[in-house]
Design goal:
about 130 residues
Length: about 130
């Protein structure tokens, strides 16, 4: 494979040398020179497009890495911190024996008994 590639590149090199020697002898071949000039123009436009695309993608990657990812990671860390603090708060209250009272949840037996005793005390006052 490498031998074939070497032979092809050697043939192209000899072809260019032969063409240059022929051009020097005859002075100028307009047809071939025009083809080369048009090819050079196309190559330059392709290279300019590739460079502009590269710069555009470079800016997009820069924005993604240095602006989007840090803000997204910060948001995830804030959510994780909130979750951990809620779990810590609920675990700490249950560990210390406190209960969190809710409006829509059940009331502890102690508070139920207190409410009944208060109603009895009010009834006895009348």
């Amino acid at each position: 494979m490498m031998t074939i590639l070497f032979i092809i590149s050697l043939a192209v090199l000899f072809g260019l040398l032969f063409y240059k020697a022929f051009e020097i002898k005859i002075k100028r071949i307009h047809f071939i020179a025009n083809i080369f000039e048009r090819g050079d123009g196309k190559i330059h436009t392709i290279l300019e497009r590739l460079v502009s695309r590269y710069n555009h993608l470079k800016k997009i990657v820069h924005i993604f890495i240095f602006e989007f990812l840090p803000s997204y990671l910060y948001e995830l860390l804030v959510k994780a911190k909130d979750y951990v603090s809620k779990r810590y708060y609920s675990a700490g209250n249950s560990f210390r024996g406190r209960r969190v009272l809710r409006n829509n949840g059940s009331i502890s037996f102690f508070l139920e008994r207190l409410s009944h005793e208060e109603s009895r005390v009010e009834e006895t006052k009348f």
